[in-house]
Write a structure and sequence with these properties.
The radius of gyration is 16 Å and the shape is globular. The longest helix is centred in the first third of the chain and has 16 residues. It is α/β, with parallel strands linked by helices and 191 residues long. The protein is 42% helix and 17% strand. It has a 7-stranded parallel sheet with strand order 4-3-2-1-5-6-7, sandwiched between helices. α1 runs parallel beside α2 and α1 packs across α7.
Length: 191
Amino acid sequence: MHITVYAASSGQIPEPYVREAAALGRLLATEGHTLVNGAGRTGLMGACTDACLAAGGRAVGVIPQFMVEQNWQHKGMTELCVTPDMHSRKERMASMSDACIALPGGVGTLEELLEVITWKQLGIYLKPIVVLNADGYFNPLLQQLQRAVDERFMRPEHWQIWRTARTAAEALRLCAETPLWDASVRKFAAL
């Protein structure tokens, strides 16, 4: 499988998150999956890539040209895909993937996760989405999404768009076990 991993690029992240990102990278490699990410060299993105490559895995980075001009890309990627802009980057990462996993991150990671959830709700992206809720990082977001369901901003069926994992191993298991989303759910997109 090609698994897209959304993750923080900040280099000031607490160590438990870095360890989980590295664990995910190692597991991707040892289980024969290809890592697809934003090609950042720092933070959880860099930790996941470094561990994947160190374990003999394949890592494909997708990065917009302006970030390459800033020299933000990981130099060791197996393959580097340069896009004209951020929108093309997100589309390319999703189209390359057989599943997505979100590690903890800031607004960029949250935006990527929520966009792919929206695409799945609309029947555009049908593949598994897993929130790797390391150390409960995503609890507030998951509570907000539950509130959206409770207050009928989303249908109860939409709660099934993503799966939640506590560990890298569980996240990969959910990627493999979660069936493709039925595109006919598009009819439920409007309440």
